[in-house]
Every structure is written in C-alpha cells, then in structure tokens.
Amino acid sequence: MTRANRKLNPPRAADALTRWFGVTGRVALVTGASRGLGHAIALALAQAGASVVLWAKHRARLEATARQIRSLGVDASCDVVDVTDAARVRTAVERALRQHGAIDVLVNNVGIWDGDPITELSLARWTRVLDTDLTAVFGVTKAVVPSMIRRKRGKILHISSTSGLLAHPHSSAYGAAKAALMHLTRIMAVELGPHGIRVNAIAPGTFRTDMTADVFEDRAWVRTRLRRIPLGRFGQPADIAGLAVFLASPASDHITGQTIVIDGGASLAIG
Asked: Contact, 168 vs 224, CB < 8 A?
C-alpha cells in the first residue's frame, strides 16, 4: 500500500460510516424528549446529523434540550404536547411539517408506569396507562404516517419494555400496554412496509431514569436485580442511543417489525 493510499483510507472509512449510520438531512420527531431515554435518543439523533422536533409536557426542560441540540449546530424545535390529546397531536404534527417539510423518523417514547397489584389497580389508573403507553402511540403514528406514505419512506421506532415480555408484579397495566405495543409494531410493519416505512421497537430492561428513580431507593431491590443482569450493571439513557440511531439510519433498512431487547442480558434464562 502506498503512502497516498494510506492517507485516503481513513476518509473513505468515515464516508462509509456516514452513509450507513448517518441521518444528516433527516427530520426526527421524538416524544417525551425532555428527559430520560427520550432526551438521550433526541441528542443522539442530533449528533448523527438529524434535525429534531422535541415533544413533551414540560416547556422549560424541552427548551433546555433544544438549546443543547442547537449548540451542536443542528436545527431543533420544541412543542408542548400531551400525546393523549388527539387534537393537540394533529396540530403539532401539522406545525412540524410546515416548519421542517417532513418527518422522516418518529420515535414514540412517552410512557408512564403507575403500577399497583391487580387487586388494587383502579380502572382509572389502568385506563391512564393504556391511553398513554399504547393508544397515544397509535394516535401519534396515525397523524405522522400520511406524510411518510406520500414520500414513500419513513422510520418509526416505538419504545416498549421487557415488562412486555416478563411477568413483573404490579405491572399489569404497563406490561399489557408494552406487550401490545410489540405486536402493534409487527402489524404496522406489515401494513406500512409496502409504502417504504420501517417500524421497529426497542425493549429496554431496567434503566436509571426519572421514571424509575423511586425503585432505585430500595437498596435490597437494587442488589437482587443486579445479580440477575449478566453484564452486572443497570442501563443508562446513553446506552439506548446507538441502537436508536442504527434503527433510524440506512444501516437498518432491511429490518422491520422487530423488537430489540436492550437489558444487559437480564431477560435471559440465567440464575
């Protein structure tokens, strides 16, 4: 290999990585983007080159996330949206399309826990969880999909949970919603595939986020749970970033209808 060739190889490798994993020029809509997994995913997509539309219910945290992304030299807009409000969702999608021209990637991240034993779980709390974790995903996706169909392309990513695979106590509403979301992912993939739209899901295990902060205060629970994780640690929001970028990028163009578990091996039949 000549010295000239050695000098050319690194840029060529970088170009290939950008072609496979870059999302420059794409627009990504991320729900629940002000903190936790949503914040990490939005930041990662921005770092990979995407313009980002940020949705959440807390304006101050949203605007802080938008400023962080803009500091990277990437366009970011934010909108205060309750994803269970269908009219608000439609209006916000229309605004995003006017502002950015397209939504190429949709990340349905919003979710709530609100767990109780089945004997104590009220119908109101059951409905609240199902409305937020499942019905809202349907509503947001339905609002975004027509614009993707017109352009014959799109990536949709649902954030599910290993609670949809495993029978965790006190998680009847949350687990049922997340299990249903995995199957909804498969159905959407079948229906939307002919339009060039890929639909996949990520099922995180136990991650340290605002939503799980209370359980991490139980030291006995933490010790017991850690023993069940082959990799020996809990997930951090940044751990989900690379997978989300991969599923949004051209590198995953022949993957659809899949739920990818990211839990350090905790859901495997070990111990």
From this structure: no
